[in-house]
Specification:
mainly alpha
Length: 107
């Protein structure tokens, strides 16, 4: 009986952590999408942290399209790439308790 509860707890914990990781990813991605659509204003620290997070988790970086653009704002193509990456990999996202950050499960 104890094994059953331990297994159930582990499954629920994994599910909650995976969901939290997905929520964190979407929160960061949505910050840029809302900024692009001008539906929300956010401070530059939030933008910078979201940019760092998305590049680190997805491995998808970008270059400025024009030399005078601020490097923290991604292109429309990069936003689409990040969204597509999420749709393909959201089940692999999890919260790492030791490192206290979102990671991607290796296959």
């Amino acid at each position: 009986m104890k094994i059953y509860f331990a297994l159930l707890f582990a499954i629920i914990s994994f599910s909650v952590n995976a969901q939290n990781a997905q929520d964190i990813f979407l929160e960061n991605l949505t910050a840029f999408e809302n900024l692009k659509n001008e539906s929300q204003s956010i401070d530059l620290n939030t933008v910078y942290e979201a940019r760092q997070f998305l590049i680190e988790v997805t491995g998808i970086s970008y270059e400025m399209e024009k030399p005078f653009e601020m490097p923290i704002f991604p292109s429309d193509k990069t936003l689409i790439d990040w969204r597509n990456w999420y749709e393909k990999n959201k089940a692999k996202l999890y919260w790492d308790e030791n490192d206290q950050k979102v990671k991607v499960k290796e296959e």
